[in-house]
Design a protein that fits this description.
heterodimer, A: 90 residues, Folate-binding fold, four-stranded antiparallel sheet, 10% helix, B: 419 residues, alpha/beta, eight-stranded mixed sheet, 11 helices, 18 strands
């Protein structure tokens, strides 16, 4: 796989570190236990398009949000995650 | 169909091998069964065998979307061991190993189980302490375990680099003499033949595309070969569990699907007569009876349903192999392939009565699937027949994640890719 980093351009997958499912939302600290069980332990695990976080660990070290097909490994979109998402931090 | 024996072998040697019948029938699906098992892998076929043999339930169909043995049962590296640590997991794997020891006789099919022993190498004093702890836990559970010194390991494995010049010098290791390997295709075929002889229908190229519901209860499956109804539906499709069970309404399982690669080299003369694992990286290797080195390492590391891996992991595995065995540098790799693993959130499986009435689930096998095949079938058959888990698989409940009884052998936390 080659990931097109928004900062560094296309780079091999071995430079990147996989973080996990990007659709999991951390519940409020006061949320019921069931919400926490869901966030910590359960995943939708789709066969097909998956939103996921990666980090360009051996590059710019930015956290990235990828839209990737888990069956074909095709990458549809890469953007910066967190405060820099969608150019918000520029 | 006759038993395989020295007599049938001799008879067919004399009559030009004309007396062999197919090992299992190719029946068309009936409209209704007592039990439908979705998934004709090792675990599904083992479940059918034990349902028929131990519980007398023979009105059973095993539905396989492809050909039996084409999924993970034919994609693993064939290691069998029970060197676990937790009191709630070890008895299950030990029961599995005991079943392995008698499996060829039980099935009247040679699964070529070979108790050649398995060594886990330690490369630091801390790691050796961890193995001592695990060995003590095994001994307390009545499972023999030994700690070997580097000199003892050198004697058992002459090809291994145990010198101080090794990149990660070997300090010792955990040895389970009863561990070993088995021929994985024969395991699928042997269970299939045994179940078929007891009346189970094995239906290949029959993909489940949905579940039939009446009120909340699951009463059947729709398949590529029509609707099939059953009193009990058992889903055992490790690798595709999330995908299949989503159709039954289970949208959130504690599972991610990851690809794990395996490799086999060209055939060599006998060079390695134990199975051995590297402790400074992740590598496990044995030599097959045909002479090929069979080895594997880490997951590729990201969610995947593709039954193929990427090259960085192949390189990583080769590097670990050469750190252990510099002499293998010129050995050529014959084949590599990938299998899809149900990586659960604590590294252990789920075998339980399903959260939906009429459904029984067996999934989340991580790295443990092949060695667990007989015990998985044995306990899952029990669970289906009695509508309650056997004491051996009671800890493998789906509810353990809510109740705080996770079975995290290595304390790595809820990260499926880390187990």
């Amino acid at each position: 796989m080659i990931i097109d980093c928004p900062c560094c351009g296309p780079r091999p997958v071995s430079e990147f570190s996989y973080i996990g499912d990007a659709e999991v939302e951390k519940p409020d600290m006061q949320a019921p236990v069931a919400d926490w069980v869901e966030a910590v332990y359960t995943r939708t695990n789709p066969r097909g398009t998956h939103l996921e976080h990666w980090q360009h660990l051996h590059g710019c070290r930015q956290f990235l949000k990828l839209q990737r097909d888990t069956l074909t490994h095709e990458i549809f979109a890469v953007e910066l995650a967190g405060v820099y998402a969608s150019g918000a931090g520029e | 169909m006759t038993d395989y024996s020295i007599l049938s072998l001799a008879k067919n040697a004399l009559n030009g091998q004309a007396g062999w019948a197919p090992a299992w029938r190719k029946p068309d699906p009936k409209p209704e069964y007592d039990v439908v098992i979705v998934g004709g892998g090792g675990h599904g076929l083992a479940t059918a065998h034990y349902l028929a043999k131990d519980h007398g339930i023979t009105n059973v169909a095993v539905l396989e979307k492809n050909l039996i043995g084409s999924g993970n049962v034919g994609r693993n590296t064939t290691l069998v061991r029970s060197n676990y640590m937790l009191d709630r997991t070890l008895p299950f794997y030990e029961h599995s190993l005991k079943l392995w020891e008698g499996l060829s006789h039980d099935l009247n099919y040679n699964v070529m189980f070979s108790s050649r022993g398995i060594i886990n190498l330690a490369h630091s004093p801390g790691q050796l302490d961890v193995f001592r702890r695990r060995a003590n836990s095994m001994l307390l559970n009545g499972v023999k375990a030994e700690i070997l010194s580097a000199a003892q390991i050198a004697e058992k494995v002459p090809a291994l680099d145990v010198s101080d010049a090794a990149r990660f010098p070997v300090l010792g290791g955990l040895y389970q003499a009863r561990g070993g390997t088995a021929r994985h295709d024969a395991v699928a075929w042997g269970f299939a033949r045994s179940a078929d002889r007891r009346g189970v229908d094995i239906i290949e190229q029959c993909e489940v595309t949905g579940f039939l519901k009446k009120d909340r209860r699951i009463v059947g499956v729709s398949t590529s070969r029509g609707e099939i109804r059953a009193k009990k539906i058992a889903v055992v499709v490790a690798g595709s569990s999330s995908h299949v069970l989503q159709q039954a309404g289970l949208n959130n399982l504690p599972i991610e699907s990851h690809v794990l690669q395996a490799f086999v080299s060209e055939g060599l003369k006998p060079v390695l007569d134990v199975a051995i694992t590297f402790g400074a990286g992740h590598l496990y290797i044995s030599q097959s009876d045909k002479g090929g080195l069979v080895f594997g390492g880490d997951l590729d590391g990201y969610n995947s349903y593709a039954q193929r891996g990427n090259l960085p992991v192949a390189e990583d595995v080769a590097t670990a192999l050469l750190a252990m065995f510099p002499a293998f540098a010129k050995v050529r790799v014959l084949r590599s392939w990938g299998g899809i693993m149900d990586m659960s959130m604590d590294g252990q499986p789920i075998i339980d009565v399903g959260p939906v009435p009429g459904l029984y689930i067996n999934c989340g096998w991580c790295y443990e699937g092949f060695k667990a095949t007989p015990a998985s079938g044995y306990t899952f058959a029990w669970t289906i027949a009695n509508d309650a888990p056997h004491e051996l698989n009671a800890p493998f409940s789906l509810s353990r994640f809510q109740n705080g009884y996770v079975l995290d052998e290595k304390g790595r936390g809820p990260f499926p890719g880390h187990h």
